[in-house]
């Protein structure tokens, strides 16, 4: 697996592993299978695992902690803090105080069984709390050797510039995929100007771009996509046209729609490290193989032009989930 650089000093596999679905949000999960997925990811050369304290909470970090204890694999772990929610509830508060950041970091280190987090993200920025405050505390955690690099999620350009002035940011993580391209307007160009890497989350559109969903889809109990505006039956009636375009183009390229969606992101720049999420070995292997697929600029343009003909219906999140986006 090739590697890519996030910021000035974090070298990671060109594709990471999104671990969120191993704990919640996308239906049922099985820890023993998830642990095998992690082990296979390491065999395939994937050394960049993505989690957050709020996934589960806190099942996802604990599961990775279990894996790290057994595997002793030299992984780069990215985790996040700042979204405070109770188990079983989606309702959240966004917490960025200095004290909260430090407590959250100590708690994540404990759950992961680590003394160092490679990349520590602010999961959501609270616009009521100056970003300089939390950045001050995070830079102290860097000095103390508890975290290696600082990241920000769903940030807007001006907050990113203010944060970067306090301490260099290694990566911005925001949703980015063939059906979520807003980041191309301001935040991705700003990252490039400042030398900050970009980590697209939900690079498969939460599974939608793989062609697995249509307006007839019945979601499993507890699958949070059932509540997302883009996955409503009415929205999917239109949006499924996008998945069809991708499926057709993938057929021409002799790959799967998931692989084409990842290859498209990888083709958008060497500073981009997608983190597709899966809890299945089959999908993991399929996704890892996407790093071998190269799209020409003509292929990229043709795909983008076809998709642009179908405007996406529906917001990315429910009103509760929209809290802290573009903050
Ligand atoms: N910073 C943030 O606010 C934020 C928000 C969301 C996610 N994230 C991070 O980003 C990671 C990835 O995003 P995501 O998991 O939301 O979405 P995603 O990677 O776009 O899609 C995951 C979904 O696609 C399915 N899938 C994966 N590979 C597939 C394949 N080859 N063929 C068919 N289906 C496939 C998965 O199925 P199975 O689950 O059945 O394997 C899962 O339902 C997360 O794990 C998390 O670490 C961050």
TrEMBL record:
<dbReference type="InterPro" id="IPR050791">
    <property type="entry name" value="Aldo-Keto_reductase"/>
</dbReference>
<protein>
    <submittedName>
        <fullName>Predicted oxidoreductase</fullName>
    </submittedName>
</protein>
<dbReference type="InterPro" id="IPR036812">
    <property type="entry name" value="NAD(P)_OxRdtase_dom_sf"/>
</dbReference>
<dbReference type="InterPro" id="IPR020471">
    <property type="entry name" value="AKR"/>
</dbReference>
<keyword id="KW-0560">Oxidoreductase</keyword>
<dbReference type="Pfam" id="PF00248">
    <property type="entry name" value="Aldo_ket_red"/>
</dbReference>
<dbReference type="InterPro" id="IPR023210">
    <property type="entry name" value="NADP_OxRdtase_dom"/>
</dbReference>
<feature type="domain" description="NADP-dependent oxidoreductase">
    <location>
        <begin position="15"/>
        <end position="305"/>
    </location>
</feature>
